[in-house]
Amino acid sequence: MKPGNIKKTTITKTLAITTIAGLSAITIGCSTGMHKSKTMTAKNDGDIMVPANYRSWPKFVSTVDKMKTGQVREIYINKTGMKTQKGNAFPDGTVSIMEIYGAQKSPTGELLKDSKGKLIKGKLSKVFVMEKGAGWGSKQAKGTINNGDWLYGAYLADAKTPATKDFTSCRSCHAPLADKDYIFRYDEHFDTAMH
């Protein structure tokens, strides 16, 4: 049947069924405690949730020690982001997770290190997430620090309880990295991946 011969009633019924199905899915999502579905579009920092399976993703770089702050950081990236080639921006749909652990300390307060001189992870304290979506940057309120189309989320160790509502510090920290698509350790990631 040619598209021009489809009856108006068939189109109306199809639209009605699609609308009811969509509303039912949203209602079910709300009643089961889902925070966001893949079909919903994030609009602001804090809308981005931590995917449950992120620890099965590739590491973006090896574990990062932050001696000054006494932190150990683990950084993951999803398969969409891993497809990126050096010199290119990350595609829409890229998600990066950074876990922050306190480093273990001796009874006298010195940072403990393993046999390779790396800090030893203590308790997980926070989980940060970055996600990139088409046009998300243009939807930010006037005065928001530009970070391209990236949005941020910050959570406590349970990866559910928000750690902040103000993402100015996240955006300020990443803003100077525009030539690296606002991603820290961009070069390190690709240099490691090429070897």
Describe this protein's structure.
- The chain is of the alpha+beta class and 195 residues long.
- The protein has a single domain (54-193), classed as Cytochrome P460 (Chalcone isomerase, 3-Layer(bba) Sandwich).
- It has helices at 8-31, 79-82, 168-174, 186-193, and strands at residues 64-66, 71-77, 95-103, 121-132, 150-156.
- It has a five-stranded antiparallel beta sheet.
- A hairpin with a 4-residue loop joins strand 1 and strand 2.
- The radius of gyration is 21 Å and the shape is globular.
- It starts with 7 loop residues before the first helix and ends with a helix.
- InterPro entries: Cytochrome_P460 (IPR032033), Cytochrome_P460_sp (IPR038142).
- Residues 51-184 form the Cytochrome P460 domain.
- Pfam families: Cytochrome_P460 (PF16694).
- This is Cytochrome P460.
Give me some keywords for this one.
about 200 residues; alpha+beta; Chalcone isomerase; 4 helices; 5 strands; about 20% helix; disordered N terminus; Cytochrome_P460_sp; Cytochrome_P460; Cytochrome P460
Topology:
Layout: H1 8-31, E1 64-66, E2 71-77, H2 79-82, E3 95-103, E4 121-132, E5 150-156, H3 168-174, H4 186-193
Antiparallel strand pairs: 1-2, 2-3, 3-4, 4-5
How is the main sheet built? Answer: 5 strands, antiparallel
- What's the SSE pattern? HEEHEEEHH
The shape is globular
Domain count, please report it.
1
Number of helices: 4
Overall mean pLDDT stands at 83
What CATH architecture label applies? 3-Layer(bba) Sandwich
The CATH class is: Alpha Beta
The unreliable regions are: 1-39
Q: Structural class, judged by helices and strands?
A: alpha+beta
Beta-sheet strand percentage? 15-25%
Query: Span between N and C termini?
Result: 56 Å
Radius of gyration: 21 Å
- Total strands: the figure is 5
